[in-house]
TrEMBL record:
InterPro entries: Glyas_Bleomycin-R_OHBP_Dase (IPR029068), MeMalonyl-CoA_epimerase (IPR017515), MMCE/EMCE_epimerase (IPR051785), VOC_core (IPR037523). PANTHER family: METHYLMALONYL-COA EPIMERASE, METHYLMALONYL-COA EPIMERASE, MITOCHONDRIAL. SUPFAM superfamilies: Glyoxalase/Bleomycin resistance protein/Dihydroxybiphenyl dioxygenase (SSF54593). Belongs to the methylmalonyl-CoA epimerase family. The keyword Metal-binding applies. Keywords: Metal-binding. Residues 4-132 form the VOC domain. This is Methylmalonyl-CoA epimerase. Pfam families: Glyoxalase_4. It comes from Rhizomicrobium electricum. The keyword Metal-binding applies.
């Protein structure tokens, strides 16, 4: 069902400092920050030859990343994202198998449909599925 790894998302309290680590120390291509108010985050995309890293900083007090950083102030891996061919079919199959789907399908940071899956059902990792 799952395809390639689309990205790994890392929560950070300091987006500029985190972007500098990838850009200046690791030599990666790093995008300008993009505010995504509908998701409560500001994101920077780090382009790698085989995938992407998304650096996420809270945008507003109700951001899910703000809640994450309250528990882990130094930041860290927030979720992994895998591509699927048909997001609705994947959601329905997983839900029928007992996996907890978090919310409805919505448009993600890359402009494609996404859905999140509960970490307790996926080895302690929040999983995002994105339609390829």
């Amino acid at each position: 069902m799952i395809g390639r790894l689309n990205h790994v998302a890392i929560a950070t309290a300091d987006l500029e400092k985190s972007a500098a680590v990838y850009r200046d120390l690791l030599g990666a291509k790093v995008s300008a920050p993009h505010a995504l108010p509908e998701h409560g985050v500001t994101v920077v995309f780090v382009e790698l030859p085989n995938t992407k890293i998304e650096l996420l900083q809270p945008l507003g007090d109700k951001s899910p990343i703000a809640a994450y950083l309250e528990k882990s102030p130094s930041g860290g891996m927030h979720h992994v994202c895998y591509e699927v061919d048909d997001i609705a079919a994947a959601r329905d199959k997983l839900a029928a198998a007992g996996a907890r789907v978090l919310g409805d399908i919505k448009i993600g940071a890359h402009g494609k449909p996404v859905v999140f899956l509960h970490p307790k059902d996926f080895v302690g990792t929040l999983v995002e599925l994105e339609q390829a």
